[in-house]
Amino acid sequence: MLIIVKTLKIGFVGAGNMATAIIRGMIGKGGYQPESIFAYDLNPLQLEKIGELGVQAMASAVEIVKQCDVVFLAVKPQNYEEVLTGIRQAVAPEKIFVTIAAGISTEYIMNTLGTPCPVVRAMPNTPLLLGKGATALCKASNVTDQVFHMVLDIFAASGDVAVLTEDKMNTVIAVNGSSPAYIYLFAKAVVDWAAAQNIENKTALELICKTLEGSAEMLRSSGNTPDELIKMVSSPGGTTLKAMEALKKHGFYEGLWDAMDQCTKRAEELGR
């Protein structure tokens, strides 16, 4: 099946924040025309909001499937069965589906639709809203390289992409999907502590944000491991070592491992 990417009609069932972020990337860096993108959402206000991007609003999920070549399923995992059974009548084998929900397997989508459609599974994160997302992707065995790279390019327009096998997709949620929340909690603790020491919130937030940005760049570009970078900051007998001792005492490292284990466990519970 030969696909001329930019002439495809792309549809979104669900028009929330993540769908909006993907669409912004498609229209911006991705080079897609707004008139080739269609969306449906139960919430008319959400649909009106996304319509401001020039996207075509549709009356139902079924209309999205009928109209579009590629359908992004951007709804909550708990709603998948209802959505898939609702659109089943309109599905044809050549329709391409992309799922961004935690725990929803490519096999479940094909089985519920009753058709072996090509399915790509994605786990993006909320920084896609700023074009700085991190998305993990995998594909069903019947997805051609051409189709897969088309989907990969769509997500790459809003950040970085890593390709995994499907057996890692529930686990990776703890690494990129949910991890922004861990970082925000860390920043909140720093800012709240600073406020208790009479340091203005705005000042503390600016300092910790820049520190997070710089630290991320050090991890990416310095060539040093996390352990080596920790050692670089931790002078013998100095302040950082005292801080690290306190974090160790309170089980910071182990607590984060437990959090990630619980995240993965919940993904498995949601899994189908």
Automatic annotation (TrEMBL):
Cell compartment(s), UniProt: Cytoplasm
Keywords recorded for this protein, A-Z: Amino-acid biosynthesis, Cytoplasm, NADP, Oxidoreductase, Proline biosynthesis
Protein name: Pyrroline-5-carboxylate reductase
UniProt source species: [Clostridium] leptum DSM 753
Binding locations of NADP(+): 74-77
Ranges for domain Pyrroline-5-carboxylate reductase catalytic N-terminal: 9-103
EC class: oxidoreductase
Domain Pyrroline-5-carboxylate reductase dimerisation: 166-270
Function comment: Catalyzes the reduction of 1-pyrroline-5-carboxylate (PCA) to L-proline.
InterPro entries found in the cross-reference section: 6-PGluconate_DH-like_C_sf, NAD(P)-bd_dom_sf, P5C_Rdtase_cat_N, P5CR_dimer, Pyrroline-COOH_reductase
Catalytic activity line of the entry: L-proline + NAD(+) = (S)-1-pyrroline-5-carboxylate + NADH + 2 H(+); L-proline + NADP(+) = (S)-1-pyrroline-5-carboxylate + NADPH + 2 H(+)
